[in-house]
Amino acid sequence: QLQLVESGGGSAQPGGSLRLSCAASRTTLGYYTIGWFRQAPGKEREGVSCINRSGANTKYADSVKGRFTVSRDNANNTVYLQMNSLKPEDTAVYYCAAVRQLDSFLSLAPSRYRYWGQGTQVTVSS
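and the corresponding structure tokens:
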């Protein structure tokens, strides 16, 4: 059973940066496509970014394109989400999720992912 743990959330001012980490235990993360999702109060969970198994391909929501960067270190079983130029509308609980798929698989749809972390709060305000 894959277990995911997010870390790195917190508070930042508009224009600031945070880096989220998603670490896995009990299995090799390199077998999985990893997605980052967020959910603000009263809103549906939305896909932010995803990265394929090898790390060669990524996908971003239009709202974060050019500001967020997803990467992975399979040797250390960790995936990262670097968030720059943060905006108040980025405030949400951020989740990482995993699904075991072919290397070509990329999706920002929450329904396509099987394993989920517990989430980490990101708050952007002045």
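(Above: one complete record from the training split.) The longest strand covers residues 92-100.
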